[in-house]
Automatic annotation (TrEMBL):
Protein name in UniProt: ABC transporter ATP-binding protein
Family, as annotated: Belongs to the ABC transporter superfamily.
GO MF annotation: an example: ATP hydrolysis activity
InterPro entries recorded: AAA+_ATPase, ABC_transporter-like_ATP-bd, ABC_transporter-like_CS, BCAA_Transport_ATP-bd_LivF, P-loop_NTPase
Keyword Zinc in record: no
This protein's UniProt keywords: Amino-acid transport, ATP-binding, Nucleotide-binding, Transport
An annotated GO BP: L-amino acid transport
Gene3D superfamilies: P-loop containing nucleotide triphosphate hydrolases
Species the sequence originates in: Bradyrhizobium guangdongense
PANTHER family membership: HIGH-AFFINITY BRANCHED-CHAIN AMINO ACID TRANSPORT ATP-BINDING PROTEIN LIVF
Keyword Transport: yes
Purpose of the protein: Involved in beta-(1-->2)glucan export. Transmembrane domains (TMD) form a pore in the inner membrane and the ATP-binding domain (NBD) is responsible for energy generation.
Protein origin, superkingdom: Bacteria
Amino acid sequence: MPDDALLEIDDLCVAYDGSNALNGVSLRIGKGELICVVGANGAGKTSLIRSISGIVPSSRGSVRINGVEISRRPPWDICEMGIAQVAEGRQIFSALSVEDNLLIGGSLKRARHDLANTLDSVYQLFGRLRERRDQLAGTLSGGEQQMLAIGRAIMSKPEIVMFDEPSIGLSPALTDVMFGVVKSLNEQGITVLLVEQNVAKSLALSSRGYVLENGSVVLHGSSRDLVENPDVQRAYLGL
Ligand SMILES: Nc1ncnc2c1ncn2[C@@H]1O[C@H](COP(=O)(O)OP(=O)(O)OP(=O)(O)O)[C@@H](O)[C@H]1O
């Protein structure tokens, strides 16, 4: 567990219509870490990301970034504090061009001063987006839309990016490319919270992991220990 936590979550609870999706989740992410949260369908992974980003209200608990409580703040405020999300299903603006989607990501106060450089760095990372900068985002392929969702997050100059199932719907080859991008963003200093059903790949990429079951953390530790844990091997690695 890192000493200098960037993101601290304590006893977080989320309920939909009185039914609990998160039951007191606590986790820490240190500056510069790449950690993963894994779990089966319905375990609460998306609810965790959405409640950190302020889209879904929590019923109890706290979320702090750099020691500042954010759990009652609106989503745009949370983005301004350096937390970006690459949502499951990408959530791009289909009727806008690729570049306009990216510029929306860069419209935060924290990002405006360096817009041209950041846009250039996104186009360097994803040459395909530069080629298609004027194309309507809704006409991009699934893989290109995932690149756009990641590019838009980078445009906001985040301290931490939360990825919700970035490999979903992608071919095995493109999945490897996306995991490579996640790793390289982390190597450039961006802290990463990776939520995935692809447990083997996300444990291989991360230094630590949390296993979520029915809205609770049932295991956490170094990714190396989790890979060797017989319960994880049986339930998530098909061994
Ligand atoms: N808007 C909602 N209204 C009611 N119930 C919801 C809502 N969103 C999620 N849930 C429920 O909360 C639980 C956790 O869902 P969540 O999407 O967080 O899980 P998940 O681990 O991300 O699953 P998946 O891997 O299938 O995306 C599920 O039982 C789900 O049906």
